[in-house]
Amino acid sequence: MLHTAAWTDVDGAEADSESAERVNVAGTRNVIALGAPVVYFSTDYVFDGRKGEPYVESDEPNPLSVYGRTKLEGEREVRGGWIVRSSWLFGWTGKNFVRTMLALGAEREEVAVVDDQRGSPTYVGHLAEAMPELLELLHGIWHLAAEGDCTWAEFAEAIFDEAGIDCRVRRISSAELGRPAPRPANSVLRSERPEASRLPHWREGLRACLARL
After folding, report:
1. Is 176 a residue whose pLDDT tops 90?
2. Catalytic: which of 40, 45, 67, 123?
3. What is the rounded distance in angstroms from the CA atom of residue 46 to the CA atom of residue 174?
4. Which of 96, 95, 89, 100 is nearest to 122 (CA)?
5. Could you tell me the pLDDT band of residue 72, with boundaries at 50, 70 and 90?
6. DSSP assignment of 81-134, as one string?
7. Which has the minimum average pLDDT: 166-170, 195-199, 205-209?
8. What residues make up the domain containing 52?
9. Among this protein's residues, is 67 annotated catalytic?
10. Number of structural domains in the chain
11. Can you give the CATH number for the domain in which 84 is found?
């Protein structure tokens, strides 16, 4: 069973931690109670971002936000299943950074984007393609994110470049943006497990995503 349901409103979780806990923790507990093998999709936000290099499976989590804490507590509900941590997910449907930037870039000459958070934008299509191989491997924690890394501002610039949109990116700090939930400055994920799948580079994922829009 692929357990993808989650409270993903990072800032909203700060104001409504009870609802985030009901979805991410109690909801996961209910899924586990069904008794089927479970793949639980988790997040890079279980880490505090203070590490100067990519996070691997054996690194100790230390979430900064309610969202990160509830996702980590959800991980701890999983028994005998797979915990897949990924990062900065984007795709051709739903609400995500790529679709938001495309909409803003179409109506503005400039957008302000954070440049002091670094991660690995991961295309959901590539993540999905890697799942059959992962399910042949042992239960446990797996880091599965795109190759390469960038800041949100660099990601926005790549989106506009690949989409042929004439929109400037003004680089700002997290403090300037002033979001309620703290984010890790570094949330790049890599696997220390030699048998783990390797996803394509995030820029390749971006091109694949844009081709489906």
Report:
1. yes
2. 67
3. 18
4. 89
5. very high
6. SEEEEE-SEE-SSSS-HHHHHHHHHHH-SEEEEE-S-EE--EEHHHHHHHHHHH
7. 195-199
8. 2-212
9. yes
10. 1
11. 3.40.50.720
